[in-house]
Each structure stands twice: as structure tokens, then as C-alpha cells.
User: Which sequence fits this backbone?
């Protein structure tokens, strides 16, 4: 395929230009094509960091996408709950839920397949057992279906808003109200495709409620409930009201906070999930204790705040 750079695209790196023009391919995959010589500018191979002038002819020769399949890996897991239908795991921050472009190993699914051998097949070879997801740097409880029947039943509960999900978040700024609700539609950010936005007044309906657990002069510690399941919902909504999650640089939080230790993740934790057993219908609630690094950071905030 031939792509013609436009004057408005002057100053873009070649890999960013390709990701903007070919959003169905990951930036990592496009960078690999550039390194393989499958991308040529004016007929010659180039580097991913090449800065465009806005008039180039860019030729792209896509490679066939190798099929991805999750394989077992011996990775430790903290099991919070287990029965014949499902497993609840305390996912650590930094662990990707399932494989994708650029992440083919070290995922939660790889660990689960080693531990339990078989999971629900409804998610396919790439996402066996996956009923819902957590962002890579969000820790906490996540449910995994062990059978197809359990998967269907849990998916129906999620679709019917019958699953209660409670998160803990530390945000910048002091919220005045003890509780509140954010009802703002969420859409893909047109200027930065890796994030979402609630500032366009358009997109998919999204609703988030929060309750303040503790306040400091520069921070608020919140219990958050989501009533819809949109991508980056909590992070997007809290940023939209001027209170980004601590450590969430994608949504406007600073990289470092004077007087506090660095936090190599953002402060968002899936604390509790409540649902009904797919087999018996009885209510089940599973809690994941706050991750150790978040506990330590919270203590540092308290000390620094006097």
C-alpha cells in the first residue's frame, strides 16, 4: 500500500504516522515492519524515528500476522477464590491479562493455563476464560471462567449490570464533596489514540460513582464503583473532573511528586467484586487486599501530609 504524507503531518515520526494511518495495527508491529525493511520512504528503507516533512510517499508491505495462541507458563498466582465454575485471582500491577501484539508471554492467561490446564474456550485460543479485563497497571481481583457454561452465565451478569465492582483509587487534589457521581460519555481521544476522553460530550454512555475515604491537602483516597464497563473508565472520568489518578501519566498525573517516593504504576486497585454463582445462584463476594506498594505509598502520603 502507498501512503502519501500530508503537510499537516510534518514533524511526525514515521512510526507515529503509520499508527495514525493504520490504527488496526499496533505501533510495535508497525515498528517491526520498519525494521524488517517492509516500510520504504521514497523507495528507501527508513528508521522508525524518521521525522516526516509532510510530502513523502510511504510504501508499506504488510507481513502476514502470525496466529497467536496462549501457552502455559510457570508464573506464580495468588488465588483468592476457586470452585468448579470459576477462579478469582489477585492480578499484580504490570501483568497483562492476555497475549496480544507485543505481549506474547508472561500474561495472566499463560499463568492460568499452567495452573489449571483448561479454561473456558469461548474467548478463543488467545483469551481462554477471560470474561472481563483489568488494565495492565491496575492490580486486584479478576474473574476467570473455567467452563463455557460459567463463561456464558458470568458474561450475562456483566452485560446485565448485575456484577458490582469496587475499586480503590488515590487521586490528585482534595474533593470537596464526600461522594459524587460522574455521568459523562466516553470516546476515543482523536488526538491521542492510546487514551480515552470524556471531554467531547459524545461517545458511549458511562457512569462512575465515588465516595471519599480520606483526604489530605493534595490528595483524596476514594472508593469507586463503575456502573458501566468502558475502556479506562475510572481513569478517564476522574481526569475529566480534574482529579487524575496518582501515577497515571497518560491522563495528566505528574511523573514525580516532590517529597514522595516514585510509584512505578498508577494508584488504582480492583478491591472487590460481587456476583452470583453460575451453578447455584448464591451471592459471592471476593476481595483483594490493597497491593503492598500502594499501602506503602499511602503511608508515605500520610507522613508527608503531617
Assistant:
Amino acid at each position: 500500500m502507498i501512503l502519501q504524507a500530508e503537510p499537516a503531518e510534518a514533524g511526525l515520526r514515521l512510526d507515529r504516522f503509520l499508527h495514525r494511518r493504520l490504527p488496526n495495527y499496533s505501533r510495535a508491529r508497525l515498528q517491526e515492519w520498519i525494521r524488517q525493511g517492509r516500510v520504504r520512504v521514497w523507495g528507501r528503507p527508513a528508521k522508525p524515528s524518521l521525522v516526516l516533512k509532510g510530502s513523502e510517499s510511504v510504501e508499506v508491505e504488510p507481513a502476514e500476522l502470525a496466529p497467536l495462541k496462549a501457552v502455559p507458563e510457570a508464573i506464580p498466582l495468588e488465588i483468592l477464590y476457586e470452585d468448579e465454575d470459576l477462579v478469582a485471582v489477585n492480578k499484580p500491577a504490570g501483568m497483562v491479562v492476555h497475549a496480544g501484539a507485543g505481549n506474547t508471554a508472561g500474561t495472566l492467561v499463560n499463568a492460568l493455563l499452567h495452573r489449571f490446564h483448561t479454561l473456558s474456550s469461548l474467548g478463543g485460543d488467545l483469551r481462554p476464560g477471560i470474561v472481563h479485563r483489568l488494565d495492565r497497571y491496575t492490580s486486584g481481583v479478576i474473574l476467570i471462567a473455567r467452563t463455557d457454561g460459567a463463561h456464558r452465565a458470568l458474561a450475562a451478569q456483566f452485560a446485565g449490570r448485575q456484577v458490582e465492582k469496587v475499586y480503590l483509587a488515590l487521586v490528585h487534589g482534595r474533593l470537596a464533596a464526600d461522594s459524587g457521581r460522574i455521568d459523562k460519555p466516553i470516546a476515543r481521544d482523536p488526538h491521542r489514540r492510546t487514551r480515552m476522553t470524556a471531554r467531547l460530550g459524545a461517545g458511549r454512555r458511562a457512569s462512575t460513582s465515588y465516595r471519599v475515604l480520606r483526604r489530605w491537602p493534595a490528595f483524596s483516597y476514594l472508593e469507586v464503583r463503575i456502573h458501566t464497563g468502558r475502556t479506562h473508565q475510572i481513569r478517564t472520568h476522574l481526569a475529566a473532573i480534574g482529579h487524575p489518578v496518582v501515577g497515571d501519566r497518560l491522563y495528566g498525573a505528574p511523573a514525580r511528586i516532590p517529597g514522595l517516593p516514585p510509584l512505578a504504576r498508577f494508584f488504582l486497585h480492583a478491591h472487590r467484586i460481587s456476583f452470583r454463582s453460575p451453578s447455584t445462584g448464591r451471592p459471592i463476594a471476593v476481595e483483594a487486599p490493597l497491593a503492598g506498594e500502594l499501602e506503602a505509598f499511602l503511608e508515605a502520603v500520610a507522613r508527608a501530609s503531617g
Q: What stands out?
A: Residues 68-160 form a domain with the Pseudouridine synthase fold (CATH 3.30.2350.10).
